[in-house]
Amino acid sequence: MLTVIAVGAFALLFLGIPMWMIFMVMAIAAMTWQGVSMDVVVQGLSGTINNLVLLSVPGFIFAGNIMGRGGMAKRLIDWISSFLGRVPGGMALTTITAAELFGAISGSSAATVAALGNVLYGGLRRLGYDERFSLGLITSSGAIAIIIPPSITMILFSVMTNASVGKLFLAGFIPGIIVGICAAIYCVWYAIRHKISEGRVWSLIDMIRTSRAVVWTLGAPVIIFGGIYGGFATPTEASMLVSVYAVIVSMLIYRELSMRELWAITRDTAQLSAKLFIIVAAAGVFSWVLAAEAVPQTMVKFIDGLDLQPWMVLLILNMILLIVGMFMDPNSAVVLFAPLLWPIAQHAGVDLIHFGIIFTVNLAIGMFSPPFGLNIFVSCSIFRVSSSRVVSGLVPFFVAYLIALGFVTYIPILSLYLPNLLM
C-alpha cells in the first residue's frame, strides 16, 4: 500500500497536480481500499485546521504585504543603509540586514523577496554588483524571513508537533543571525575582490533623518515580540495587532497606501491564506493515513536497526529535508514530514525545539533551491529574467547557508540558549 501511495504521489506531482489535491486523492484512495468511512476525511479536514495558532498566519501575511507596499519597508532599508552604506559590501549587507528585520514582521519569504527586490536591485546594479550576484543575493536573502520569527513555517511546525510557538520564535533569533553572518562574509569578500565602492560617506544628519523616519516601522516588531513575551498577547492576537498598526501607519502617517491598494492586499492575503489552509487540511488527512500504516514507527525501527550515531541521524535528516525543499513548498513539507521525521529525531535524542529550527533552516534553503524553489519564481516574475539566470547566482549563497545549517545542526545551544534562558 505504501509503495502504491508513494508512486502515485510522485506521478501526480510531476503531472503538475496541486499538492493539496495529491494529498486528498491519495488519502481517499487509501481509505477506500481499506474500507475506512469517509467521515474520517471530514474529521481530518476540520480537525487539522481547528487550531487557534493558525489564525496568526493571515495576520502576519497581511502585515508583511502592507509594509512592503505602504512605505514601511523602504524606510527600513534607507535607515539600515545610512549605517552600513560605507562598509565594503554595504549595499549587499543592507539587503541581508533588511531581510532579517523585515522577516521579523512578515514571516513570509516571498513577500520579503518582493519588498527587497523592488527597492534594492537597482541600487546594487548601479554600484557595480553584477546581475548574477544581485539576483542571487535578493533571492536567497528572502529565505531568512522563515528563520527569523515570527515564522509561518514555525507556526505550522508547532501545530503538527505540539511544540511551543513562543519557544520556537525565541530559538530562531540566533540561527537567523548566524545565517545572515555566513552570507554577509561572502558579500564582503565579493565587494573587496571586485573593488566595488559604495559611493557614499557616513553622515550624522542622514542617520538622524532616517532614524526619525523609521521609528514607526520599528514599532511593528516591538508590538509582536513585546506583546508575546510580555504576556500581553498570544501570537494570534499579536498578528492582528500588528496588522492594524501597519494599516494605520501606512495610510494615516506615511500616507503611501490608498484604499484601493488596501483592498487588493486584503484580497491577496485572503487568497493566499485559503491556499495555505487547504494544504494544511488535506495534508492532515494524508498524515492520518500514514499514521494508520504505522509509517513513523517503521521509519524509527529502520533507523534504529542501522545503529547510527546521533550526528549521522541528523545528517540523514538534513539530506532528506534538503531534497524535500527542492520539490515542495515549506508549508506542505512541514505538515507532511514533521510528524514523520520528529519520532526519528526524538529517538536520536534531539530536542523538539532544536529539531524545529533544523527543520526550518532546511526548508529556508529549499526556498531558493532549484528546480521548484518558490523564491526563484518570485525573482523571475519581479525582474523578468529566466530561472537559469537566477539560479546561476545562487550557488555561493547555497554554500553559505549550508555552512550555517551545519552550525545550527551540531551546536544545539545556538537554538536552545534563548528559550532556556527566558522560558
Provide a count of the helices.
21
Query: How many strands in all?
Result: 0
Strand-residue fraction?
under 5%
Structural class by helix and strand composition: mainly alpha
- Helix share bin: over 70%
Largest sheet: none
- Average pLDDT rating: 83
The string of secondary-structure elements, in order, is HHHHHHHHHHHHHHHHHHHHH
Number of spatially distinct domains: 1
Rg from Cα: 22 Å
Poorly predicted segments = none
CA-based shape = globular
Distance between the termini: 44 Å
Report the oligomer: single chain
Short description:
79% of the residues lie in helices and 0% in strands.
Overall description:
It is a single chain. The protein is mostly helical. The protein has one domain (about 50-255, about 295-420). It has helices at about 1-15, 20-35, 40-50, 55-70, 70-85, 90-105, 110-125, 130-140, 150-160, 165-195, 205-230, 235-255, 260-290, 295-305, 310-325, 330-345, 350-365, 375-385, 385-390, 395-410, 415-420. Helix 10 (about 165-195) packs across helix 20 (about 395-410) and helix 13 packs parallel to helix 16. The longest helix has about 35 residues, at about 260-290. It is globular. The termini are far apart. The mean pLDDT is about 85.
